[in-house]
Each structure stands twice: as C-alpha cells, then as structure tokens.
UniProtKB/TrEMBL annotation:
Stated name of the protein: Transglutaminase domain protein
Superkingdom field: Bacteria
PANTHER family associated with the record: BLR5614 PROTEIN-RELATED (PTHR33490), SLL1233 PROTEIN (PTHR33490:SF1)
InterPro entries associated with the record: Bac_transglu_N, Papain-like_cys_pep_sf, Transglutaminase-like
Gene3D superfamilies on file: 3.10.620.30
Organism of origin: Solidesulfovibrio fructosivorans JJ]
Length: 281
C-alpha cells in the first residue's frame, strides 16, 4: 500500500512580522512500518537557510530560518509513503515479560522514562479505567491495550473540536466526547499508569476516500518487548497497520506539533488555514 498526499499550511498576519527559526514536523517517518519515497517541501517566504534534522524522538524535522519582514508563512509538503505493515500483531512477546507493569531492563527504563512519566494534567479518570480493566482480567500488555480501546469506544465519542489545545483525561471523560488528539492523550495516560511506555503520534489516516477535506489525525503508540513501538488508535478502536501515515511521535503532544516557532512584532490578527489531499494507492 502506498499513500500520496499534499499538505498545505498558511499563516496570514495583518501586519508584517519577523519570523524566528521554525521547525516543520510534516516529514513522514521512516521506520519498520513505513518507508519514505519522494518528498518536496516548499516554504514561502524563501528561508535564508533550511536543513533536515533528527530530533530527540527520532523524527525527521525541517528547520528553517529567515531574515526580513513578512506578512505570511506558507508551507506545502508533497510526499509519497510506502506502508509496509499489513498485520499489526506480527510480533511475539516473551511470556516472562508479558505482565504489568512491563519489566524493563535498566537501559530500556532509561530510554522509556519520558514515556512512562505521568502527564502534567488531571488524569484520574484514565487511571480509574486502567485499574478497572486490570481487575477485569486485562493483565498482559496486549490484552490491556485492546481492552482499553474497547472501553474507550464504549464510553467516549469522537467529535471534531476546532478550539486549540488538548483536553485533560478528566475533562474528556466529563464531556464524554473529544477530538482524536484528546483520546490519544487519554490512552497514553491509562497505559503509563499500568507501566506501559506510551507516546503521542500525529499523522494521517485513510479516512473516507470520498471526502476531499482532510485533517491531521492523532493516535498513540505503546512500546512492547518483542514488538517495539506499536500504534493503537482509540478514535477508531483499532491497532494501527497500513492505513495510517505517522509523521511525528513524542512523549509530549506539543513536541509533535506540525509547525513550531515564534515571531517578533505585532501581527494584529493571525489567521491559520490548511488543506490536505490524500490518496491511497
């Protein structure tokens, strides 16, 4: 399976501003589940300099820097990705390590520390759900990951939420509904509570092929001994295979934001527009 997409993002300012260096996290990841093909990134105004870098989470990020004033920032990414993982369960967990919390080696524990730390937001409802699932028999990593998908599908609805930011797990539970990014964070909080490393992923999903308007999608990845990082999508209630394209993953959702940077000056009103065109082939 291959995916071709174009992602256009534009910021318009009422008055010219000076753009500080920006990080653009819209380059598809290359990993065991997907391979990056042809890639083109156009930035306007043309940066004084640009370079692809690898961040602390292993994501490929475009770093750009500017001079002079501008009234806009326009980024267009065109990419083709080969999606390789048809079976999301093509791994074997050593029975001795198939318990909760996950028994990690000292090296694994150091690497996974940031993906096990409690999230800096109220998350008691996610912890309660996690404890209830364990009491009900979901006491292995894979059983817990799947049971959590089912429990969230039963309790939480998925909606489009235009306002920025992420709802805390407690706020999401109280509302009973949230955006994909909110559900991903709830899933992360529950997994971390039982000792499964979890991180936030931004990217794309196949969605409805008949729809022209698209948006970025979000889900969670958990680390399993013998399986490595594996995606679980609580918005869709499934394990991730070859219908998702991962762009960035990080312990903190802010570190997977598609565009990160600041500016100097008073922009008046700043407006954001984006358009995504995606095709599976």
């Amino acid at each position: 399976m291959h995916c071709r997409y174009t992602h256009h993002t534009r910021y318009d300012f009422d008055r010219p501003v000076f753009l500080e260096p920006h990080l653009i996290r819209l380059v598809p990841r290359g990993d065991a589940g997907q391979r990056l093909g042809p890639l083109r990134i156009d930035v306007d105004p043309v940066p004084d300099g640009r370079g692809l870098i690898t961040d602390l989470s292993g994501n490929t990020v475009l770093s750009v820097w500017f001079s002079g004033l501008t009234g806009h920032l326009d980024v267009t990414v065109e990419a083709r990705v080969e999606l390789c993982r048809t079976n999301p369960f093509d791994y074997l967990i050593d029975a001795r390590r198939g318990v909760l919390p996950l028994p990690l080696t000292p090296a694994e524990a150091r690497e996974a520390a940031s993906c096990l730390a409690p999230l800096p937001m109220p998350g008691e409802e996610a912890e309660r759900m996690a404890e209830r699932l364990r009491r009900d028999g979901a006491d292995t990593p894979q059983a817990f990951a799947l049971a959590l998908l089912g429990a969230m599908t039963d309790r939480l609805a998925v909606v489009t939420r235009e306002e920025p930011g992420i709802l805390s797990p407690d706020a999401l539970y109280a509302r009973g509904e949230g955006a994909c990014r909110d559900l991903a964070v709830f899933y992360m909080a529950a997994c971390r509570h039982v000792g499964i490393p979890a991180r936030f992923v931004s990217g794309y999903h196949e969605g409805d092929p008949g729809r022209e308007d698209r948006d970025l999608h979000a889900w969670a990845e958990i680390w399993l001994p013998g399986g490595g990082w594996r995606g679980f999508d609580p918005s869709l209630g499934l394990a991730v295979a070859d219908r998702h394209v991962a762009v960035a993953a990080a312990p903190d959702p802010e570190d997977a934001a598609p565009v990160f940077g600041t500016y100097r000056g008073d922009p008046g009103q700043a407006r954001l527009r984006h358009a995504i065109r995606l095709e599976m082939c």
